[in-house]
Design goal:
Layout lengths: L3 E7 L7 E7 L6 E6 L6 H15 L9 E5 L4 H6 L22 H13 L3 E8 L13 E4 L6 H13 L9 E4 L6 H9 L2 E8 L4 H18 L5
Parallel strand pairs: 3-4, 3-5, 5-8, 6-7
Antiparallel strand pairs: 1-2, 2-4, 6-8
Helix pairs in contact: 1-6, 3-5, 4-6
Length: about 230
């Protein structure tokens, strides 16, 4: 199967430049956009996204239908320092049609999203704690807007993922909330995308977090029709 993979660069010519990849399947289908590393200290999300790109390049994974837009490491500068980022990039996206991004990188990332108009927008993150034990934390959770058509899908995927996790304390939960200024909420409000944030927990080992990130991404891409 021939897969067309195109490499581009966000914020080209600036200190924020970072690569992105466009993967087109052989037939027309939905467009899905995936971002990771918006926060530079969330390293498992970055490794999972990079490994996913590598598997596509090596022909180990295939996009059978539609288009995948993936930015495996959004915030290169924060990642180099292993910090969340200053300012927090995930507070600089437009919150309404009259708002503008407040950072060159979020501006170019959202421009790319607006260009491709993804039906799905998946933002890979990490967080503190275990949400199954503490509703105030986000570790081990999937987030979406309570009014989003993705709510049912997110609940189904969490249920499926949890079947393979023996320790109930580390099960994933569903969180229904908006976050003005985030890439996810901007994609939901302004692009009408099924927008989902994946949050693995820093309480778990790095390899396990990478595994969960890739597994959830694969499940979401299957639901979007890009993979079997």
């Amino acid at each position: 199967m021939h897969i067309d993979i195109m490499k581009g660069e966000l914020a080209k010519g600036t200190k924020f430049h970072t690569p992105y990849y466009i993967v087109k399947g052989p037939t027309i289908g939905a467009t899905v956009m995936v971002t990771a590393g918006v926060h530079g200290n969330e390293t498992a999300s970055v490794k999972a996204a990079k490994q996913f790109v590598h598997s596509l390049q090596q022909g180990l994974l295939h996009v059978q239908k539609g288009t995948l837009v993936i930015v495996p490491l959004v915030n290169q500068q924060a990642y180099t320092k292993r910090i969340r980022g200053v300012p927090d990039l995930n507070r600089t996206f437009p919150s309404s049609a009259h708002d503008k991004p407040r950072h060159p990188l979020s501006a170019d990332l959202f421009r790319l999203a607006a260009q491709y108009r993804p039906a799905w927008y998946i933002d890979m993150h990490e967080a503190n704690g275990l949400s199954r034990l503490n509703p105030k934390v986000l570790g081990q959770s999937l987030l979406t807007d309570r009014r989003s058509p993705s709510v049912k899908i997110v609940r189904q995927i969490v249920k499926r993922i949890n079947r393979s996790i023996e320790r109930q304390a580390t099960h994933f939960t569903v969180r229904l909330r908006e976050l003005s200024g985030s890439g996810r909420t901007a994609a939901a409000r302004l692009l009408q995308a099924k927008a989902i944030t994946v949050e693995t927990s820093w309480s778990l080992s790095h390899p396990i977090r990478v595994k969960y990130q890739k597994n959830i991404l694969r499940q979401l891409l299957k639901r979007a029709g890009l993979m079997h």
